[in-house]
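re: that chain from earlier
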Amino acid sequence: MPFAFADTAENAIPLHVIETAALDDWCVDQTETVVNWVRLNGFTGKLGSALLVPGETGPIAVVGYGDADARARGRYALAGAVKKLPEGTYDIVWGLPEHLLETECLGWLLAGYRFDRYNKKKDRDVRLVAPAGVDADRVRIIAEAETLLRDLVNTPTSDMGPDALEAAARDLAEKHGAAFSSVVGDDLLDKNFPMIHAVGRASATPPRLIEFTWGSDGPLLTLVGKGVCFDTGGLDLKGASNMLLMKKDMGGAANVLGLAHMIMALKLRLRLRVLIPAVENSVAGNAFRPGDILTSRKGLTVEINNTDAEGRLVLADALALAAEDEPELVISMATLTGAARVALGSDIAPFFTDDDAGADTLSRAAREIDDPVWRMPFHTPYESKIEPGIANLDNAPSGGFAGAITAALFLRRFAGEGRYMHFDIYSWSSFNLPARPKGGCGQGIRALLQAMPDLLAK
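^ sequence. v structure.
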Protein backbone atom coordinates (compact mmCIF):
# COMPACT_ATOMS: atom_id res chain seq x y z
CA MET A 1 0.00 0.00 0.00
CA PRO A 2 1.41 3.43 -0.89
CA PHE A 3 2.55 5.52 2.08
CA ALA A 4 0.37 8.45 1.12
CA PHE A 5 -3.08 9.82 1.76
CA ALA A 6 -5.85 9.91 -0.85
CA ASP A 7 -5.59 12.78 -3.30
CA THR A 8 -9.26 13.63 -2.92
CA ALA A 9 -12.24 12.89 -0.70
CA GLU A 10 -14.47 12.45 -3.75
CA ASN A 11 -16.30 9.09 -3.64
CA ALA A 12 -14.67 8.27 -0.30
CA ILE A 13 -16.55 5.89 1.98
CA PRO A 14 -17.53 7.45 5.34
CA LEU A 15 -15.72 5.75 8.25
CA HIS A 16 -17.20 6.01 11.74
CA VAL A 17 -15.01 5.07 14.71
CA ILE A 18 -17.40 3.87 17.40
CA GLU A 19 -16.78 3.23 21.07
CA THR A 20 -19.11 0.69 22.66
CA ALA A 21 -20.52 3.27 25.06
CA ALA A 22 -21.25 5.65 22.18
CA LEU A 23 -23.03 3.14 19.93
CA ASP A 24 -26.57 4.10 20.95
CA ASP A 25 -25.87 7.80 20.50
CA TRP A 26 -24.36 7.10 17.10
CA CYS A 27 -27.37 5.07 16.01
CA VAL A 28 -29.71 8.00 16.79
CA ASP A 29 -28.22 9.92 13.87
CA GLN A 30 -28.24 7.01 11.41
CA THR A 31 -30.85 5.87 8.94
CA GLU A 32 -33.18 3.01 9.73
CA THR A 33 -31.26 0.86 7.25
CA VAL A 34 -27.97 1.41 9.07
CA VAL A 35 -29.51 0.75 12.49
CA ASN A 36 -31.07 -2.48 11.24
CA TRP A 37 -27.71 -3.51 9.81
CA VAL A 38 -26.10 -2.91 13.20
CA ARG A 39 -28.65 -5.18 14.86
CA LEU A 40 -28.54 -7.90 12.20
CA ASN A 41 -24.74 -8.12 12.44
CA GLY A 42 -24.59 -7.91 16.22
CA PHE A 43 -22.21 -4.97 16.01
CA THR A 44 -21.36 -3.68 19.49
CA GLY A 45 -18.29 -1.54 18.89
CA LYS A 46 -15.97 -4.35 20.01
CA LEU A 47 -12.37 -3.38 19.43
CA GLY A 48 -11.31 -4.28 15.91
CA SER A 49 -14.76 -5.25 14.64
CA ALA A 50 -15.89 -3.83 11.32
CA LEU A 51 -19.42 -3.09 10.13
CA LEU A 52 -19.78 -2.72 6.37
CA VAL A 53 -23.16 -1.29 5.40
CA PRO A 54 -24.02 -1.69 1.70
CA GLY A 55 -25.67 1.04 -0.28
CA GLU A 56 -28.88 0.60 -2.18
CA THR A 57 -27.01 -0.35 -5.35
CA GLY A 58 -24.43 -2.61 -3.71
CA PRO A 59 -21.21 -0.68 -2.96
CA ILE A 60 -20.39 0.10 0.66
CA ALA A 61 -22.23 3.18 1.90
CA VAL A 62 -20.98 3.37 5.49
CA VAL A 63 -18.29 1.67 7.58
CA GLY A 64 -18.35 1.41 11.34
CA TYR A 65 -15.19 0.37 13.13
CA GLY A 66 -15.25 -0.76 16.74
CA ASP A 67 -13.07 1.20 19.13
CA ALA A 68 -14.27 -0.42 22.40
CA ASP A 69 -13.16 2.13 25.01
CA ALA A 70 -10.08 4.16 25.87
CA ARG A 71 -8.73 1.51 28.24
CA ALA A 72 -9.00 -1.35 25.76
CA ARG A 73 -7.56 0.34 22.70
CA GLY A 74 -3.87 0.14 21.97
CA ARG A 75 -1.54 2.17 19.83
CA TYR A 76 -2.59 2.36 16.17
CA ALA A 77 -5.94 0.69 16.92
CA LEU A 78 -7.50 2.06 13.73
CA ALA A 79 -4.80 0.40 11.66
CA GLY A 80 -6.51 -2.92 12.27
CA ALA A 81 -9.26 -1.79 9.91
CA VAL A 82 -6.97 -1.72 6.88
CA LYS A 83 -6.82 -5.49 6.42
CA LYS A 84 -10.56 -5.86 7.00
CA LEU A 85 -11.78 -3.29 4.50
CA PRO A 86 -12.11 -3.66 0.72
CA GLU A 87 -9.82 -1.61 -1.47
CA GLY A 88 -10.97 1.96 -1.76
CA THR A 89 -10.77 5.39 -0.15
CA TYR A 90 -12.09 6.06 3.35
CA ASP A 91 -12.87 9.28 5.17
CA ILE A 92 -13.04 9.45 8.99
CA VAL A 93 -16.23 11.40 9.68
CA TRP A 94 -17.08 10.51 13.27
CA GLY A 95 -15.75 9.33 16.57
CA LEU A 96 -11.95 9.64 16.60
CA PRO A 97 -10.75 12.20 19.19
CA GLU A 98 -8.71 15.07 17.78
CA HIS A 99 -5.65 14.27 19.90
CA LEU A 100 -5.45 10.79 18.34
CA LEU A 101 -5.83 11.82 14.71
CA GLU A 102 -2.14 12.15 13.77
CA THR A 103 -1.08 8.91 15.49
CA GLU A 104 -3.98 6.90 14.06
CA CYS A 105 -3.46 8.29 10.57
CA LEU A 106 0.19 7.30 10.82
CA GLY A 107 -0.90 3.83 11.90
CA TRP A 108 -3.15 3.60 8.85
CA LEU A 109 -0.24 4.36 6.54
CA LEU A 110 2.07 1.94 8.37
CA ALA A 111 -0.54 -0.81 8.16
CA GLY A 112 0.53 -1.11 4.54
CA TYR A 113 4.13 -1.87 5.49
CA ARG A 114 5.58 -5.24 4.60
CA PHE A 115 9.16 -6.36 4.28
CA ASP A 116 9.09 -7.80 0.77
CA ARG A 117 12.70 -7.62 -0.36
CA TYR A 118 12.85 -11.41 -0.68
CA ASN A 119 9.17 -12.25 -1.19
CA LYS A 120 7.24 -9.81 -3.36
CA LYS A 121 3.50 -9.53 -2.87
CA LYS A 122 0.83 -7.35 -4.44
CA ASP A 123 -0.03 -4.26 -2.43
CA ARG A 124 -3.61 -3.50 -1.44
CA ASP A 125 -4.72 0.07 -2.02
CA VAL A 126 -6.78 1.07 1.03
CA ARG A 127 -6.36 4.82 1.25
CA LEU A 128 -7.36 7.35 3.87
CA VAL A 129 -8.41 10.96 3.40
CA ALA A 130 -6.26 13.14 5.64
CA PRO A 131 -8.61 14.58 8.28
CA ALA A 132 -8.88 18.32 8.75
CA GLY A 133 -6.18 19.56 11.10
CA VAL A 134 -3.74 16.74 10.33
CA ASP A 135 -0.47 17.73 8.68
CA ALA A 136 -0.47 15.11 5.92
CA ASP A 137 3.10 15.86 4.81
CA ARG A 138 4.42 15.45 8.35
CA VAL A 139 2.63 12.13 8.81
CA ARG A 140 3.91 10.90 5.45
CA ILE A 141 7.49 11.82 6.35
CA ILE A 142 7.22 9.99 9.68
CA ALA A 143 5.87 6.93 7.84
CA GLU A 144 8.81 7.12 5.42
CA ALA A 145 11.24 7.24 8.34
CA GLU A 146 9.63 4.25 10.02
CA THR A 147 9.69 2.32 6.74
CA LEU A 148 13.38 3.12 6.24
CA LEU A 149 14.40 1.93 9.68
CA ARG A 150 12.21 -1.19 9.53
CA ASP A 151 13.76 -2.22 6.23
CA LEU A 152 17.25 -1.71 7.63
CA VAL A 153 16.57 -3.78 10.75
CA ASN A 154 14.72 -6.53 8.88
CA THR A 155 17.44 -7.03 6.27
CA PRO A 156 19.75 -9.93 7.19
CA THR A 157 23.43 -9.23 7.63
CA SER A 158 24.22 -10.99 4.35
CA ASP A 159 22.80 -7.83 2.76
CA MET A 160 23.16 -5.35 5.65
CA GLY A 161 26.74 -5.52 6.84
CA PRO A 162 28.78 -2.45 7.79
CA ASP A 163 29.36 -1.61 4.12
CA ALA A 164 25.65 -1.79 3.27
CA LEU A 165 24.74 0.25 6.34
CA GLU A 166 27.23 2.86 5.19
CA ALA A 167 25.64 2.85 1.73
CA ALA A 168 22.17 3.37 3.25
CA ALA A 169 23.44 6.28 5.34
CA ARG A 170 25.17 7.79 2.31
CA ASP A 171 21.98 7.53 0.23
CA LEU A 172 20.01 9.29 2.96
CA ALA A 173 22.63 12.01 3.29
CA GLU A 174 22.70 12.60 -0.46
CA LYS A 175 18.90 12.75 -0.59
CA HIS A 176 18.92 15.67 1.82
CA GLY A 177 22.10 17.38 0.69
CA ALA A 178 24.08 16.45 3.81
CA ALA A 179 27.88 16.19 3.85
CA PHE A 180 28.95 12.55 4.18
CA SER A 181 32.21 10.87 5.20
CA SER A 182 33.45 7.61 6.67
CA VAL A 183 36.59 6.16 8.25
CA VAL A 184 37.15 2.50 7.33
CA GLY A 185 39.37 -0.35 8.48
CA ASP A 186 42.87 0.41 9.71
CA ASP A 187 42.28 4.12 9.09
CA LEU A 188 40.26 3.95 12.33
CA LEU A 189 43.56 3.51 14.17
CA ASP A 190 45.14 6.43 12.36
CA LYS A 191 42.12 8.61 13.24
CA ASN A 192 42.07 7.44 16.88
CA PHE A 193 39.00 5.21 17.02
CA PRO A 194 40.73 2.19 18.59
CA MET A 195 37.74 0.51 20.21
CA ILE A 196 35.62 0.60 17.05
CA HIS A 197 38.55 -1.04 15.29
CA ALA A 198 39.09 -3.65 18.01
CA VAL A 199 35.45 -4.80 18.02
CA GLY A 200 35.12 -5.01 14.26
CA ARG A 201 38.55 -6.15 13.07
CA ALA A 202 37.74 -9.89 13.10
CA SER A 203 35.00 -9.48 10.48
CA ALA A 204 35.52 -10.04 6.79
CA THR A 205 33.84 -6.65 6.31
CA PRO A 206 36.00 -3.89 7.81
CA PRO A 207 34.63 -1.77 10.67
CA ARG A 208 33.94 1.88 10.05
CA LEU A 209 32.72 5.14 11.53
CA ILE A 210 29.97 6.70 9.42
CA GLU A 211 29.28 10.42 9.67
CA PHE A 212 27.14 13.04 8.00
CA THR A 213 26.25 16.63 8.84
CA TRP A 214 23.32 18.77 7.76
CA GLY A 215 22.13 22.31 8.36
CA SER A 216 23.97 25.58 8.84
CA ASP A 217 21.83 27.39 11.39
CA GLY A 218 20.58 26.71 14.90
CA PRO A 219 21.69 24.53 17.81
CA LEU A 220 23.92 21.51 17.21
CA LEU A 221 22.27 18.14 17.76
CA THR A 222 24.44 15.02 17.54
CA LEU A 223 22.86 11.59 17.11
CA VAL A 224 24.95 8.49 17.78
CA GLY A 225 23.59 5.09 16.75
CA LYS A 226 24.96 1.64 17.55
CA GLY A 227 25.60 -0.09 14.23
CA VAL A 228 26.55 -3.64 15.21
CA CYS A 229 25.32 -5.35 12.07
CA PHE A 230 25.68 -8.79 13.61
CA ASP A 231 26.74 -9.85 17.06
CA THR A 232 28.04 -13.37 17.55
CA GLY A 233 29.11 -12.40 21.04
CA GLY A 234 32.73 -12.61 19.89
CA LEU A 235 34.89 -15.11 21.74
CA ASP A 236 32.24 -15.10 24.50
CA LEU A 237 30.05 -16.75 21.90
CA LYS A 238 26.27 -16.48 22.15
CA GLY A 239 24.13 -19.60 22.08
CA ALA A 240 22.30 -20.33 18.84
CA SER A 241 18.89 -19.12 20.07
CA ASN A 242 20.36 -15.84 21.29
CA MET A 243 22.02 -15.24 17.94
CA LEU A 244 18.87 -15.53 15.81
CA LEU A 245 17.85 -11.87 16.15
CA MET A 246 21.32 -10.38 16.06
CA LYS A 247 20.77 -8.89 12.62
CA LYS A 248 18.79 -6.27 14.58
CA ASP A 249 21.77 -5.25 16.72
CA MET A 250 22.13 -2.23 14.46
CA GLY A 251 18.66 -1.05 15.49
CA GLY A 252 20.11 1.99 17.22
CA ALA A 253 21.71 3.11 13.96
CA ALA A 254 18.48 2.42 12.07
CA ASN A 255 16.45 4.52 14.52
CA VAL A 256 18.98 7.34 14.34
CA LEU A 257 18.73 7.32 10.54
CA GLY A 258 14.95 7.36 10.76
CA LEU A 259 15.04 10.33 13.15
CA ALA A 260 17.58 12.08 10.92
CA HIS A 261 15.30 11.64 7.91
CA MET A 262 12.42 13.26 9.78
CA ILE A 263 14.56 16.17 10.96
CA MET A 264 15.97 16.87 7.51
CA ALA A 265 12.75 16.32 5.56
CA LEU A 266 10.82 18.60 7.92
CA LYS A 267 13.67 21.11 7.75
CA LEU A 268 13.91 21.70 11.47
CA ARG A 269 16.04 24.67 12.41
CA LEU A 270 19.12 22.97 13.80
CA ARG A 271 22.52 21.67 12.84
CA LEU A 272 22.55 17.89 12.71
CA ARG A 273 25.51 15.55 13.09
CA VAL A 274 25.02 11.79 12.78
CA LEU A 275 27.68 9.30 13.94
CA ILE A 276 27.34 5.55 13.43
CA PRO A 277 30.07 3.09 14.41
CA ALA A 278 29.33 0.14 12.10
CA VAL A 279 30.90 -3.24 12.85
CA GLU A 280 30.33 -6.97 12.99
CA ASN A 281 31.34 -8.61 16.25
CA SER A 282 32.84 -11.77 14.76
CA VAL A 283 35.14 -14.64 15.73
CA ALA A 284 38.57 -15.00 14.15
CA GLY A 285 42.21 -15.24 15.16
CA ASN A 286 42.45 -11.47 15.52
CA ALA A 287 39.28 -11.03 17.58
CA PHE A 288 39.59 -9.05 20.79
CA ARG A 289 39.66 -11.26 23.87
CA PRO A 290 38.29 -11.46 27.39
CA GLY A 291 40.90 -9.92 29.65
CA ASP A 292 42.22 -7.54 27.02
CA ILE A 293 42.59 -3.91 27.99
CA LEU A 294 41.65 -1.42 25.28
CA THR A 295 42.50 2.26 25.21
CA SER A 296 39.62 4.44 24.01
CA ARG A 297 39.64 7.61 21.94
CA LYS A 298 39.17 9.57 25.17
CA GLY A 299 42.24 7.93 26.68
CA LEU A 300 40.30 5.91 29.26
CA THR A 301 41.34 2.26 29.45
CA VAL A 302 38.72 -0.49 29.40
CA GLU A 303 39.07 -4.03 30.71
CA ILE A 304 37.18 -6.53 28.59
CA ASN A 305 35.35 -8.93 30.87
CA ASN A 306 32.90 -10.01 28.18
CA THR A 307 33.32 -9.64 24.43
CA ASP A 308 29.52 -9.74 24.11
CA ALA A 309 29.32 -6.29 25.73
CA GLU A 310 30.74 -4.72 22.60
CA GLY A 311 28.11 -2.12 21.77
CA ARG A 312 29.18 0.21 24.53
CA LEU A 313 32.77 0.00 23.28
CA VAL A 314 32.03 1.24 19.77
CA LEU A 315 29.61 3.85 21.09
CA ALA A 316 32.26 5.12 23.50
CA ASP A 317 34.63 6.17 20.73
CA ALA A 318 31.79 7.80 18.78
CA LEU A 319 30.51 9.63 21.87
CA ALA A 320 33.99 10.91 22.63
CA LEU A 321 34.14 12.36 19.12
CA ALA A 322 30.66 13.85 19.52
CA ALA A 323 31.65 15.60 22.75
CA GLU A 324 34.60 17.33 21.11
CA ASP A 325 32.28 19.74 19.28
CA GLU A 326 30.33 20.57 22.47
CA PRO A 327 26.86 20.14 20.94
CA GLU A 328 23.75 21.44 22.67
CA LEU A 329 22.45 17.87 22.94
CA VAL A 330 23.85 14.40 22.32
CA ILE A 331 21.45 11.48 21.89
CA SER A 332 22.63 7.89 21.62
CA MET A 333 20.39 5.00 20.61
CA ALA A 334 21.36 1.36 20.96
CA THR A 335 20.00 -2.14 21.31
CA LEU A 336 22.31 -2.41 24.28
CA THR A 337 21.15 -4.60 27.16
CA GLY A 338 18.78 -7.44 27.92
CA ALA A 339 18.38 -5.85 31.34
CA ALA A 340 16.39 -3.01 29.78
CA ARG A 341 13.99 -5.54 28.26
CA VAL A 342 13.55 -7.26 31.61
CA ALA A 343 12.80 -3.91 33.24
CA LEU A 344 10.32 -2.49 30.74
CA GLY A 345 9.56 -5.15 28.14
CA SER A 346 9.83 -4.69 24.41
CA ASP A 347 7.27 -1.92 23.89
CA ILE A 348 8.60 0.90 26.08
CA ALA A 349 11.82 2.73 25.23
CA PRO A 350 13.97 3.30 28.33
CA PHE A 351 16.03 6.48 28.35
CA PHE A 352 18.64 7.96 30.67
CA THR A 353 19.48 11.60 31.23
CA ASP A 354 20.62 13.96 33.96
CA ASP A 355 18.48 16.71 32.42
CA ASP A 356 15.29 16.77 34.53
CA ALA A 357 13.57 19.41 32.43
CA GLY A 358 14.46 17.60 29.21
CA ALA A 359 13.19 14.31 30.63
CA ASP A 360 9.86 15.92 31.54
CA THR A 361 9.59 17.48 28.09
CA LEU A 362 10.27 14.18 26.37
CA SER A 363 7.89 12.20 28.58
CA ARG A 364 5.10 14.69 27.95
CA ALA A 365 5.69 14.58 24.19
CA ALA A 366 5.68 10.77 24.25
CA ARG A 367 2.27 10.74 25.91
CA GLU A 368 0.91 13.25 23.41
CA ILE A 369 1.69 11.08 20.40
CA ASP A 370 1.56 7.62 22.01
CA ASP A 371 5.21 6.66 21.57
CA PRO A 372 5.96 5.29 25.05
CA VAL A 373 9.24 6.08 26.79
CA TRP A 374 10.29 5.76 30.44
CA ARG A 375 13.09 7.49 32.27
CA MET A 376 15.67 5.28 33.96
CA PRO A 377 18.23 6.59 36.47
CA PHE A 378 21.87 7.46 35.96
CA HIS A 379 22.38 6.16 39.51
CA THR A 380 25.78 7.57 40.40
CA PRO A 381 26.42 5.25 43.40
CA TYR A 382 26.68 2.39 40.86
CA GLU A 383 29.74 4.03 39.27
CA SER A 384 31.97 1.81 41.39
CA LYS A 385 30.59 -1.24 39.59
CA ILE A 386 32.18 -0.14 36.30
CA GLU A 387 35.62 0.53 37.83
CA PRO A 388 37.59 -2.73 37.93
CA GLY A 389 40.85 -1.34 39.31
CA ILE A 390 43.19 -2.82 36.71
CA ALA A 391 41.84 -0.35 34.15
CA ASN A 392 39.76 2.80 34.28
CA LEU A 393 36.57 0.99 33.28
CA ASP A 394 35.01 -2.47 33.08
CA ASN A 395 32.85 -3.22 30.05
CA ALA A 396 30.82 -5.96 31.78
CA PRO A 397 30.55 -5.69 35.57
CA SER A 398 29.95 -8.94 37.42
CA GLY A 399 26.97 -9.51 39.69
CA GLY A 400 24.12 -9.40 37.19
CA PHE A 401 22.32 -6.44 38.75
CA ALA A 402 21.38 -3.08 37.15
CA GLY A 403 22.82 -4.03 33.76
CA ALA A 404 21.05 -1.27 31.85
CA ILE A 405 22.15 1.35 34.39
CA THR A 406 25.79 0.31 34.49
CA ALA A 407 25.91 0.27 30.67
CA ALA A 408 24.44 3.78 30.60
CA LEU A 409 26.91 4.97 33.23
CA PHE A 410 29.74 3.55 31.09
CA LEU A 411 28.55 5.59 28.11
CA ARG A 412 28.11 8.75 30.19
CA ARG A 413 31.86 8.69 30.90
CA PHE A 414 32.46 9.42 27.20
CA ALA A 415 29.61 11.79 26.38
CA GLY A 416 31.25 14.96 27.69
CA GLU A 417 29.91 17.58 30.06
CA GLY A 418 26.97 18.73 27.97
CA ARG A 419 23.38 17.51 27.87
CA TYR A 420 23.09 13.83 27.03
CA MET A 421 20.27 11.33 26.51
CA HIS A 422 20.81 7.61 26.02
CA PHE A 423 18.11 5.22 24.72
CA ASP A 424 18.43 1.48 25.37
CA ILE A 425 15.87 0.22 22.82
CA TYR A 426 14.71 -3.15 21.52
CA SER A 427 13.67 -1.99 18.01
CA TRP A 428 11.69 -5.16 17.37
CA SER A 429 8.06 -6.22 17.49
CA SER A 430 7.87 -9.83 18.63
CA PHE A 431 4.26 -10.23 17.47
CA ASN A 432 2.02 -9.05 14.66
CA LEU A 433 0.28 -5.95 16.02
CA PRO A 434 -1.74 -3.23 14.28
CA ALA A 435 0.69 -1.23 12.10
CA ARG A 436 3.60 -3.10 13.72
CA PRO A 437 4.11 -6.48 12.07
CA LYS A 438 6.61 -8.86 13.59
CA GLY A 439 10.06 -7.46 12.85
CA GLY A 440 11.96 -4.23 13.12
CA CYS A 441 10.24 -1.14 14.49
CA GLY A 442 11.04 2.35 15.69
CA GLN A 443 11.15 3.30 19.36
CA GLY A 444 11.24 6.76 20.85
CA ILE A 445 12.01 8.69 17.69
CA ARG A 446 8.51 10.09 17.23
CA ALA A 447 8.61 11.29 20.83
CA LEU A 448 12.01 12.88 20.20
CA LEU A 449 10.75 14.59 17.06
CA GLN A 450 7.73 15.93 18.93
CA ALA A 451 9.89 17.21 21.78
CA MET A 452 12.84 18.43 19.70
CA PRO A 453 12.00 22.16 19.47
CA ASP A 454 11.58 22.36 23.25
CA LEU A 455 14.58 20.14 23.97
CA LEU A 456 16.87 22.37 21.93
CA ALA A 457 15.36 25.59 23.24
CA LYS A 458 16.49 24.83 26.81
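Residues 136-154 form the longest helix (19 residues).
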